[in-house]
Structures are given as C-alpha cells and as structure tokens.
Amino acid sequence: MKIIARYILRSFLMPLGYCMLGFSLLFVIWDLFDHLNKFLASETPPLTIALYYACMLLPTLEYLAPASLLLASLYTLWNFTRNNELTAMRASGISQYRIMTPLLITGFLFSVGASLIKETLATPAFEWTKTFQESGYKAAESVPASVLTHYDVRTRRIWRVDLFNTETSRVLQGVKVTQEREDGTRARDYVADRAEWLDGAWWLFDVWTLEYDANDNPVGELTRMTPGDTIIQEMRHFSETPVDFQNVAKPWIFLTSLEIRAELQRRGVPDELPCGGTELVPTNNNGKELIRTFTSHT
Q: What is the pLDDT of residue 274?
C-alpha cells in the first residue's frame, strides 16, 4: 500500500472508530435508562449486563455501520478540504478515484462483515436477549416445548412431538411420524416412546408401526417394528435434522435468511412467484401446514 493510501486510510479510520463508539454508547445509555431499575431489581451481575449489551449491539450493526461510514467519510473529506490537502492531491496528479479507493474498500469490507455477522452471530444474539428479557433479566435455562408439528412437502413426512429440548432438539419425547404417499394418503405411522439423534441419524426407542392402504384406511393394528428384545431402531432414511425442529419452534424473527429460505422450501413455497404470493391455510386433518400459492389478476 502506497504512502498516500495509508494516509487517507488512517485519516478515515480514526473518525470511523469514534463514530462507531459514539453511536454504540448512545444506544447503550438510551437503553440503560429504561432497564437499569430492572437490572437492579433482578440483581443481574455486571458481566451478564455487559454480555446483554454486546448481544444487543450485534443486530444493530447493520444500522450503526452505514451511519458511521457516512459521517466518517464526510468528516475526512471536509478535513482534507479545510487543510487544502485535497487540492494538493489533485494538483499532484492524484485522481479522485485513487483518493476515494481506501474509503470505498473500507465500506465494502464493512458491508461484507455486517452481512456475515447478521447471518452468523446477530440472529442468535438477538434471540438470547429476548430470552434474557422474558426470564426476568436472569440466565434462562432451556425450556421444553410441547406438541410440535413438523411437515416437509419434499419428504412427505409429518412429525408430531410431545416434548423436546428447544436448545438442541436431539431428544424428542412422544414421537409419531407419518409417512405419506405422493397422493397425500398415509402409508405408515411410526409411534415411538422417544427419538434420539445419534451418529448423524435418528434412533427410535420402543417403536410401533401401523400400515395404511391406498384409501387411507388402517390395515391391522399397531405392531412392534423391532423384533425380539431389541427396542431401538435406526431410521437413517429420515432426512430431518435437529436444526429443522429448532427452526420450526422459533419465531421467524430469530431465523437467518438461509434458514427462512429452507423453511419456505419445506413448506413448498417456490423460490420465485410470478405475480402474487403465498397464503398460510389452516392445518388439515393430518395436521399439515398447507401453502396456497396464488397469482394476482389485473
């Protein structure tokens, strides 16, 4: 990097750091006026408060960074003009593109970094802050959720879970899996006491099955799937993962863009709609979430 580029970059990064720090402090102070009494009432440790505000700042980075970049750019160029440095650079034959290159590269790197942070750290940080607030500003433990229904139009499987851990979803209690045919009729039910995610596959414990004919009528009665004393059955053809159940249980504001796209694909929403959108339809008798794709008419 040439001397002039280093000088422009150094002159730009210093006010940029001040702007980022100033906006962050303003945000923290503004929020602290509203939550200070709650921290004191809950006797929240200082380190937990610091972690809370660190997690609060991550989702706001996409708003703080553009404002800081704008103000730092204006200040840097104003300072160059005030000291006649910009005129001297132009008189020395340095083009305006060369002068602006360090600022543009910095802005591009900030954009990439903010996008990566939003997709990796900001979403779980925002979820943690909401959970922290709902738990009375104390460290919250994972709370089991009940009666979860998961349906994937690609695999045509319906999962009904009575109890699972919202943090990992690796252990599901009271599991019923319904495998459908292409025409939407049921082919088989798997009923298990629990399911565990082990070695990259689901293992069902004490599993029973029930077959259905082409008219969606049960054939016979529930029969034990595993013979003899073996009560564990590996279901490697089940493609669902614990992350899928985590995403179903979360509100959509806690999902990244990639997770939202995966959820839309699971529900059968195409990536592109010609003219219109999608509409959630109440669940049918099998408990599936249906998607109605519609087009607008003019």
A: 53
